[in-house]
């Protein structure tokens, strides 16, 4: 008979390395106390890492050096959102940098939320989480939110063929398909850019 710890570990492994978790992600498996205790034991057993209060990481490994890699900032931000039951999306500057559209690395990563404004330090990184009206937060998948924030940050006049080509290269086929579905939630000019990014997928649908 499996224990809650076994069930939590199975779920963590099933979602793959690189994910960041909170105890709230496992409340369907047992009580909060049981989840906390199980995660603490998994940390002591070397299965996962503790990033901070209520944040746990199943790290990817550097195969050549055999050492764990640091967590993705967006994974941490999304987990911080789940802790408080709020949406958290990257600001335009963060999104543009993450997608290779800007070489400027924000000194402090800024994320927008429909929850309260706060600062959270995770390891050496200080997250700035700023409240924004829900209408200013993009709707759709994680990929869509990232792209729409980056495009809004650049502005319509700055989006040229080079930007479209970079985004097409940065996104996988699956991500471009999700982006195409998310285009219904954004402005007309951004939807037109999305169709350019996913032109191959558009052609396949129209000729299917």
Features of the shown structure:
Arc Repressor Mutant, subunit A; 9 strands; globular; four-stranded mixed sheet; alpha+beta; single chain; three-stranded antiparallel sheet; 2 domains; 46% helix; 208 residues
Tell me the Rg in angstroms.
19 Å
The order of strands across the largest sheet is 6-7-9-8
What percent of residues adopt helix (DSSP H or I)?
40-55%
SSE ordering: HEHEEEEHEHEEEHHHHH
Number of domains: 2
**What's the total helix number?**
9
In one word, what is the shape?
globular
The structural class is: alpha+beta
Mean pLDDT: 89
Q: End-to-end span in angstroms? A: 49 Å
Low-confidence segments? none
* β-strand number: 9
Largest sheet: 4 strands, mixed
User: What is the strand content?
Assistant: 15-25%
Structure, described:
It is a single chain. The chain is an alpha+beta fold and 208 residues long. It has two domains: 65 residues, Arc Repressor Mutant, subunit A (Orthogonal Bundle), CATH 1.10.10; 134 residues, no CATH class. The protein is built from nine helices and nine strands. The protein is globular and about 55 Å long. The chain starts with a helix and ends with a helix.
Would you spell out the secondary-structure blueprint of this structure?
Elements: H1 4-15, E1 20-21, H2 32-44, E2 49-52, E3 55-57, E4 61-62, E5 67-68, H3 73-84, E6 88-90, H4 92-98, E7 110-113, E8 118-122, E9 125-131, H5 142-154, H6 161-170, H7 173-182, H8 188-197, H9 199-206
Helix pairs in contact: 1-2, 4-5, 6-8
């Amino acid at each position: 008979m499996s224990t809650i710890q076994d069930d939590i570990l199975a779920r963590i492994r099933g979602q793959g390395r690189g994910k960041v978790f909170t105890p709230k992600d496992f409340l369907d498996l047992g009580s909060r106390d049981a989840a906390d205790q199980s995660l603490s034991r998994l940390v002591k057993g070397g299965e996962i890492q503790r990033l901070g209060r209520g944040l746990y990481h199943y790290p990817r490994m550097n195969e050549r050096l055999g050492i764990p890699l640091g967590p993705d900032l967006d994974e941490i931000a999304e987990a911080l959102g789940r802790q408080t039951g709020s949406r958290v999306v990257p600001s335009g500057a963060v999104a543009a940098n993450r997608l290779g559209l800007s070489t400027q690395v924000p000194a402090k990563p800024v994320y927008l939320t429909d929850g309260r404004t706060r600062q959270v330090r995770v390891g050496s990184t200080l997250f700035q989480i700023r409240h924004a009206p829900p209408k200013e937060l993009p709707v759709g998948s994680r990929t869509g939110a990232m792209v729409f924030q980056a495009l809004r940050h650049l502005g319509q006049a700055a989006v040229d063929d080079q930007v479209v080509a970079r985004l097409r290269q940065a996104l996988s086929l699956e991500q471009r398909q999700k982006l195409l579905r998310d285009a219904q939630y954004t402005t007309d000019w951004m939807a037109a850019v999305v169709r350019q990014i996913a032109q191959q997928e558009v052609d396949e649908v129209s000729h299917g």
